[in-house]
Backbone:
């Protein structure tokens, strides 16, 4: 679908699925009430193209620093990107692309790391 022409960071992720309200409850101990999520942002904005929640695949997480630990757990580490970094992509077919920023405070600004 895409060819990566240039990536100035070298760390991209396909392991994490779009987070959901249910995932926020699991990841944030003591969390209560509404919290925005990647899946909600994508669903709301891709709906106009006939793309439903169950049609959204695992996301392509640009700049997300995710590693698989020897235990098999997935760990989200501090971002390796810095201002000015980029990924240059070429679409190889007609696409509808949804873009959303991480709404998880502890991951987005890396207040703490988390294993799942």
Residues:
């Amino acid at each position: 679908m895409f060819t990566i022409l240039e990536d100035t960071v070298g760390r991209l992720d396909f392991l994490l699925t779009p987070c959901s309200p249910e995932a926020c409850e699991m990841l944030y101990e003591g969390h209560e009430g509404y919290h925005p999520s990647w899946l909600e942002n994508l669903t709301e904005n891709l709906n106009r193209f006939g793309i439903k929640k169950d049609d959204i695949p695992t996301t392509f997480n640009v700049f997300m620093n995710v590693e698989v630990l020897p235990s098999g757990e997935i760990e989200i580490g501090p971002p390796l990107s810095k201002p000015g970094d980029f990924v240059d992509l070429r679409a190889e077919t007609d696409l509808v692309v949804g873009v959303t920023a991480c709404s998880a405070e502890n991951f987005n600004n890396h207040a703490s790391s988390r294993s799942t």
Residues 2-115 form one domain.
